[in-house]
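Hey, I'm writing a tutorial for new members on how sequence and structure tokens pair up, and I'd like a real worked example in the thread rather than a made-up one. If someone can provide the structure for the chain below, I'll link this post from the tutorial.
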Amino acid sequence: MRACVQRVSRAKVTIRPTGEVTGQIGRGFLILLGVGREDTEKEARLLIRKIAGLRVFDDSQGRMNLSLADSGGELLVVSQFTLYAQCKKGNRPSFTEAAPPERAQELYRFFVGELQAACSGKVEEGRFQAEMDVALVNDGPVTIWLDTDYL
């Protein structure tokens, strides 16, 4: 399982073409989540523990020393299978390492549910397999790449 975790001052997901806003947060994390073919609930739990424990919010001395919970941050989760793009051959990415849509959606739903249970703050989300506009203001910028194969 892969996640691109961005510390944001605000973020919003709008569905195209309807313009429906499905998720909107203030200060916190925007999580772009990719599910791989071999991923299970074990990888989802590992990723949640890592994200919940990331100490990348400023303390009173301006040092990145606080977790999401310590800072009262919010979460916005967006499914993004393209995190599994393979670009070694040619110029057209291959997505064969991404989980099939049914399995990816199952693990995405599990991830969001477990994240809500693990984090006391607001958890919003995009819409699985929808065309979305994701707007964000990256705070810092701080962007952390997490891959359960390397945690």
